[in-house]
Amino acid sequence: MTFEPEKAQKALAAQGRDFYSRGWMLGTSGNLSIRVSAEGPIRMAITASGVDKGLLEPKNILLHSVDSENSYPDGQKPSAETVIHEAVYQSVANAQSVLHVHTVESTVVSLQAAETSGMSWVEFQGFEMIKGLGLWTSNAIAKVPVFENHGDVSLIADELRAYLDTAPNPLPLFLIRGHGLTAWGASLGEARRHLEIGHFLCACRVLHPS
Ligand SMILES: [Zn+2]
Fold it and tell me: Is the pLDDT of residue 138 over 90?
């Protein structure tokens, strides 16, 4: 589905202010995007770097094309983590929105990741809310990958891409160690729902660690 760029800019600015009011995007942290191109090279609307998310306006949402020259208004630059959004859109054909926030709970839980099969994971079991991630069987386990927080963000994107391109049924969310939570969906609403479920699960884990 094509998303009109102006509508995407408005929707993301409002979404950013909303997440800021929840305490999920403090200190200019986090980044949000919507894919605006239906086909061809990936084009997205994405939050500018270094903007206070409580004051986010449509002009702070930049149009960015992958693999082509971009120019951005008012000396703004897209988020330093744009490559992570690119990796999701490149690997998940139906992803239309990617939302990344630095919640306290997801940051704490990401530090508790355990390593199996060469990757780090946090597992959630016995929560009604995991049905919202498409896991309907009783006793299903939501196995959420936790990626290393490399200083070079492109390394995080490379590891994410490698995971998404080989995992049989990746859940629509992941953690970065000591950093935060990212979720995507086939619409902005679906991405927000997945993000809220991820937040809920992490908040439960913090309150009830075992
Ligand atoms: Zn971040």
Answer: no
Q: How far apart are alpha carbons 21 and 5 in whole angstroms?
A: 24
The yes-or-no verdict on residue 174 having pLDDT over 80 is yes
* Cα–ligand 1 centroid distance for 161 (angstroms): 17
pLDDT score of 187 more than 70: yes
Q: How far is the CA of 142 from the centre of ligand 1 (A)?
A: 22
The pair phi, psi for residue 173, each rounded to 5°, is -160, 160
Residue 18 three-state SS: helix
Q: How far is the CA of 137 from the centre of ligand 1 (A)?
A: 32
With b meaning 16 or more CB within 10 Å and e meaning fewer, what string describes 19-51? bbeeebbbebbbbbbbbbeeeeebbbbbbbbeb
Asked if 32 contacts 51 with a C-beta cutoff of 8 angstroms, the reply is no
Ligand 1 centre distance from Cα of residue 75 (Å): 21
Q: Which residue has the tokens 């492109």?
A: 154
Predicted local distance difference test score (pLDDT) of residue 74: 94
CB 97 within 8 A of CB 46: no
- Report d(CA 101, CA 106) in Å as an integer: 9
Whether the CB-CB separation of 43 and 65 falls below 8 Å is answered with yes
